[in-house]
UniProtKB/TrEMBL annotation:
<dbReference type="InterPro" id="IPR027417">
    <property type="entry name" value="P-loop_NTPase"/>
</dbReference>
<protein>
    <submittedName>
        <fullName>ATP-binding cassette domain-containing protein</fullName>
    </submittedName>
</protein>
<keyword id="KW-0813">Transport</keyword>
<keyword id="KW-0547">Nucleotide-binding</keyword>
<keyword id="KW-0046">Antibiotic resistance</keyword>
<dbReference type="InterPro" id="IPR050763">
    <property type="entry name" value="ABC_transporter_ATP-binding"/>
</dbReference>
<dbReference type="InterPro" id="IPR003593">
    <property type="entry name" value="AAA+_ATPase"/>
</dbReference>
<dbReference type="InterPro" id="IPR017871">
    <property type="entry name" value="ABC_transporter-like_CS"/>
</dbReference>
<dbReference type="GO" id="GO:0005524">
    <property type="term" value="F:ATP binding"/>
</dbReference>
<dbReference type="InterPro" id="IPR003439">
    <property type="entry name" value="ABC_transporter-like_ATP-bd"/>
</dbReference>
<feature type="domain" description="ABC transporter">
    <location>
        <begin position="21"/>
        <end position="255"/>
    </location>
</feature>
<dbReference type="Pfam" id="PF00005">
    <property type="entry name" value="ABC_tran"/>
</dbReference>
<keyword id="KW-0067">ATP-binding</keyword>
């Protein structure tokens, strides 16, 4: 189980004024700006769940994951990963977690992938059968042998990500934190990675925490979602619950006889204000309605009365639409406060 209790992370940045005079004045009086990247965040991620940590660029996802993996210490509050405060007990925490930061390599740049794996095997004391089983899996799914003995720094982004993903799972960790793991991967490899993590979760009950800007990753891997907006949690629950927050839903129907699709759409929009009707594939019609004005029952009753329905279904709301609305609502920099006075810029 992973717990965050009123977790806060602030960064103190030195404001530099433009120009030479400005730069010199920075030496004497330093203006600071506090960036609150994680703002009083509390959540519980149950063991064995697959949670998407979702939010717009700059929402505070990576910063939270850095605290959960022990790389950064919180400014306030605390977090626990399987009962351990990660930044206080980095080594104990490292044994039970696997980490991928798509933006930053966890591997040794001058070593080849097989050499890195051999070192990781020693560090984590991975038993022979586990090591062999996992290598077989990575050969099969990630074509890991094709990376050869090239040093990591000479690998392409996609090649390096395959190695990073494999390395994060090599010791059968109880929890994996994957921060943008599919960055740079082609479609086939993305599928393989989704398959791999689902396989590992099924076999070992691994807890998965994933951030990704690829909605397909979230849909293919996660059952729960934690949505953050400007450092704050705005939704926590199942993906299904998240979809229920959609402001618009739709019904697709097919009808016999009656007006042609163009006329049918015009009629629906005229009689149901705020509804958008459009011809869908195979002559079907898609009716898109705002949930604060109509219930699905009302829309269906209207369609049954006006048309001779041959078929009708309600597609799931689109996760991308739901997230787009949340992101658009908070599309701005995180909360900042100006602080003047002596001191130094602080990056961690
Ligand atoms: N080391 C740092 N020093 C100063 N500010 C930082 C630092 N790391 C992050 N920030 C700021 O904190 C905020 C949150 O950044 P973070 O990297 O956690 O966002 P994110 O949700 O992972 O975004 P993305 O989707 O772009 O990866 C941003 O405004 C960022 O500029
Ligand atoms: Mg990030």
């Amino acid at each position: 189980m992973i717990v965050a209790e009123n977790l806060v992370k602030e960064f103190r940045l030195t404001e530099r004024k433009p120009g030479l005079v400005g730069s010199l004045s920075t030496l004497f009086t330093r203006e600071h700006r506090i960036v609150r990247a994680v703002d009083d965040v509390s959540f519980t991620i149950p063991a064995g769940s697959k949670t998407a940590y979702i939010g717009a660029n700059g929402a505070g996802k990576s910063t939270t994951i850095k605290m959960l993996t022990g790389i950064m210490t919180p400014t306030g509050g605390r977090c626990l990963v399987r009962g351990i405060e990660p930044y206080r007990h980095r080594q104990a925490n490292a044994r039970s977690i696997g980490v991928v930061f798509g933006q930053r390599s966890q591997l040794w740049w001058d070593l080849s992938v097989p050499d890195s794996f051999r070192i990781l095997r020693r560090i984590y004391d991975v038993p022979d059968p586990v090591y062999r089983r996992n290598l077989t899996l990575y050969r099969e799914l990630l074509d890991i042998d094709a990376l050869g003995t090239t040093p990591v720094r000479q690998l392409s982004l996609g090649q390096r990500m395959r190695a990073e993903i494999a390395a994060s799972l090599l010791h059968d960790p109880a929890v994996v934190f994957w921060d943008e793991p599919t960055i740079g991967l082609d479609m086939v490899l993305k599928d393989a990675v989704r398959h791999l993590v689902n396989h590992v979760h099924r076999e070992l009950g691994t807890t998965v925490v994933l951030t990704s800007h690829d909605i397909a990753d979230i849909a293919a891997i996660c059952d729960s979602a934690l949505v953050v907006d400007r450092g704050r949690v705005v939704h926590q629950g199942s993906i299904r619950d998240l979809l229920r927050t959609a402001e618009r839903r739709s019904v697709v129907f097919d009808h016999r006889g009656g007006p042609d699709p163009g006329h049918a759409c015009a009629r629906i929009e005229q009689e149901l204000p705020g509804v958008h009707a459009s011809p869908a594939e195979d002559g079907r019609i898609k009716v898109d309605y705002p949930v604060d004005r109509f219930t699905s029952r009302q829309v269906l009753a209207f369609l049954l009365e006006r048309f001779d329905l041959a078929d009708c279904y309600a597609p799931e709301p689109d996760l991308e639409d739901v997230l787009r609305r949340i992101y658009a609502g908070g599309r701005s920099a995180p909360r900042t406060t100006g602080v003047a006075g002596p001191g130094q810029g602080d990056a961690a």
